[in-house]
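Minutes, project check-in
Item: structure for the 291-residue chain
Input as provided by the requester:
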Amino acid sequence: MSAPLARRPPAAAADVPALRCAGLVHVYREAGTDVAALRGIDLEVEPGQRVALLGPSGSGKSTLLTVVAGIMRPSAGTVAVFGTDLGNARERNLRRLRAGTLGLMLQGASTNLLLHEGAGANVEWALRGIPSGSTRVADQLLDAAGLRADDRPVREMSPAEQQMLALAVAMSTRPRLLLADEPTSQLDDADRDRLLDLLVEIADQQGTAVLLVTHDELVAARMQRSIHLRDGRIGEEATAAGRYAVIGADGSIPLPEALRAEWGSGRLVSIDAVAPGELRIRGAETGGDHD
């Protein structure tokens, strides 16, 4: 890659989080019925921090990303990006946020790119009217992908090339928070690792926070935190220090997957404090202990 840009100056100590969700709820209508896709999400992402969102289909990952992008409004609770309350922001302020503060890599080339244009034209289109943008950032990524001098329209590029270009377009505006929805889902292992190497390198150079949706634990491992969603709630969080259950606002604690399979919904259990900071969970019928 070419010489890197100078790293963005660090945020002041009193700076606000890159993302803060508090009691975030999103409900949509399906076949005349209200469906809760998000059920009280509490999440904070620090400036420059990389976070993965994992969970099965229907767990709320993509819905959360879409709400954070300001594309859908929350039904309840709050979501703020660098202090901007997305639930109360005017539409022009949301557009301004998506044009500079936020970088978007949504699913599908047609969502991120102009299919009839080449790499250079896509970058130029992304940078129109954004004085903080940088063609040097895009050039670093396009050089690494071998696309800088490529005049082919996007529709003729491979999935890997399209994703490399989508990353270059998203990062060319020098966003403070990058939102990426399954950016490696159509890539083989080599292309996946190549894209992640570039994403991590450029995000670190620019001090960009990343919120990335994935089904792939190997992709999540490249982030600094992994948030596991289940039924619209945060169930677990993993960092370099270990993997932990997350206590809900109502005091509930999600069971590990192995116990969920063994103990179905409605199962009676007893929970006892056996030592400071230690609980014992016992199934009422079997008497088996799980400390």
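Outcome recorded: DSSP finds nine helices and 14 strands in the chain.
No further action items on this chain.
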